[in-house]
Design brief:
This is CchlP. By secondary structure, this protein is mainly α. Helices cover 56% and strands 0% of the residues. It starts with a helix and ends in a 51-residue tail after the last helix.
């Protein structure tokens, strides 16, 4: 269960910080602050809202200056805070999942990458694979392997 809560905290922090850098932040900020405040010891949503705005300012400044570590630090801070809140109150996991589902339409779309390859002629002696996030592949060869001519021979 701990791993699930840790993953949920990471998802929540990524979503919250991702939204901080968008125009949608003004629409969702209050909802995020209310969720975060209810898990704190008597902390009100205005205080959490102020912390969120400080984080937003730090995030935007880091991105403007190209400081990827600074931007990652903002996410890490909220991931740690969410993980602690979920550890202290595991029932909050359901509410965080609901909040993330509610915020999903506001999140920026993931960047898409288009790759076009063209192969003409030539002889290929092994599989050629190009892709993104490839894992768990097994190639089983069967049959005879033709000898590969050495460059310049022939």
């Amino acid at each position: 269960m701990e791993a699930e809560l840790t993953a949920l905290a990471a998802s929540g922090a990524t979503a919250f910080v991702g939204l901080m850098a968008t125009e949608a932040w003004n629409q969702v900020r209050g909802r995020v602050a209310r969720f975060l405040a209810r898990g704190e010891d008597g902390e009100d949503s205005e205080a959490v809202d102020a912390e969120l705005e400080e984080s937003r300012a730090a995030l935007l400044a880091a991105r403007r200056s190209g400081d990827e570590d600074g931007a990652a630090d903002v996410t890490a801070e909220w991931r740690i805070r969410l993980r602690r809140a979920l550890r202290d109150n595991p029932e909050a996991a359901r509410e965080l999942r609901e909040l993330l589902d509610e915020l999903a339409p506001h999140q920026p779309a993931a960047p898409t990458v288009t790759v076009n390859n063209s192969t003409n002629g030539g002889t290929y002696y092994s599989p050629v694979i190009q892709g993104h996030d490839i894992s768990g592949l097994t190639f089983n060869g069967g049959g005879a392997v033709s000898s590969r001519p050495e460059p310049g021979a022939g």
